């Protein structure tokens, strides 16, 4: 098999094997290899090139994802492995961890704050959401400690600002209760909050 190259857009180089396009590499890696045009290449060498191409593509895509929002380590790995495979995704995540682009502890604190303040979730729902993103129990616990959680008062505040006019109708009350349950609040806390409005559930 003979290998040739052609400059692509930006810092990419297109690689051809026996005249057929095969893969794309980043120019820094390609020129570092020092391949001569029309040189014979083995199957093992080609496999190594494909492995490197997959890793670099996964890494660049990972950075692109992180530029749009924060990710947990496991969440980003799972996203990358779908397209680039387990090995490339693992290498990409390892490199991002090395450079500090991924940090589960900081992610957990930031995401917990968002769910608490914006979504108004209770800490039980927040704990669940963090764990399904692969955050460790230790980081989840530390993130939850940063939240000033008073569930009954939070429910009271939400009822007063959003649901007060719906308390007289039994069907509406059930809908409100179910919404709070989905947000992670316990039935005990919901019931206590409703009593503040002289309403039983």
Protein architecture, described:
- The protein has 201 residues and is of the alpha+beta class.
- The chain is 63% helix and 10% strand.
- It contains ten helices and four strands, in the order βββαβααααααααα.
- It has a four-stranded antiparallel β-sheet.
- Helix 2 (43-68) crosses helix 3 (73-84), helix 5 (104-117) packs antiparallel against helix 6 (123-132) and helix 8 packs across helix 10.
- The mean pLDDT is 93.
Structural class: alpha+beta
Low-confidence stretches: none
Q: Largest sheet at a glance? A: 4 strands, antiparallel
Question: Strand order, biggest sheet?
Answer: 3-2-1-4
Number of DSSP helices? Answer: 10
> What is the oligomeric state here?
single chain
From the N-terminal CA to the C-terminal CA, the straight-line distance is 76 Å
- Rg for CA atoms: 26 Å
Share of β-strand residues = 5-15%
**Helix amount, in percent?**
55-70%
Mean pLDDT comes to: 93
Number of strands: 4
